[in-house]
Amino acid sequence: MLFYGEEALAACEGNGKGIRLLVTDVIMPKMSGGELAEKLAARNKALRVRFISGYTGNVIERQGILPKGTNFLQKPFTSADLGEKIRGILAYARTDRYERPSASPPP
């Protein structure tokens, strides 16, 4: 388990294209999960991302941190919940990549 985005980027050096799924917290020190996803997705267009957070999905969307419809799982969750979400995202036919919101969210 890695705790910072920079650690994750370093761990992926030379293997960025072999990674199929990134599970990352939305809010992390030094680099957000969104920034990490963008940097890894630039190396691997097929990368799928599952964001997790202790904040609710509504708060994340209202703050403009993640766009509506992003693959998101709220903490706390069980290992069964995470396993189900991971199986679903890996089985899904299209790539679910993180894309920054293009406009500020409504107040």
Description:
This protein is α/β, with parallel strands linked by helices. It has a single domain (13-91), classed as Response regulator (Rossmann fold, 3-Layer(aba) Sandwich). It has four helices and three strands. The protein has helices spanning 5-12, 33-43, 57-62, 79-91, and strands at residues 21-25, 48-53, 72-74. It has a three-stranded parallel sheet with strand order 1-2-3, with helices on both faces. Helix 3 links the parallel strand 2 and strand 3. Helix 1 (5-12) packs parallel to helix 2 (33-43). The radius of gyration is 13 Å and the shape is globular. The termini are far apart.
Q: Tell how many strands the DSSP assignment holds.
A: 3
- Described by the principal axes of the CA atoms, the overall outline is globular
Number of helices: 4
Number of domains: 1
Side by side, the strands of the main sheet go: 1-2-3
Helical residues, percent: 25-40%
CATH topology term: Rossmann fold
What oligomeric state do the depicted chains represent? Answer: single chain
Kindly provide the name of the CATH class: Alpha Beta
- Contiguous runs where pLDDT drops below 50 for at least 5 residues: 98-107
Name of the CATH superfamily? Response regulator
Cα gyration radius (Å): 13 Å
Biggest beta-sheet profile: 3 strands, parallel
The percent range for strand residues is 5-15%
Mean pLDDT: 80
Class derived from helix and strand content: alpha/beta
What sequence of helices (H) and strands (E) makes up the elements? Answer: HEHEHEH
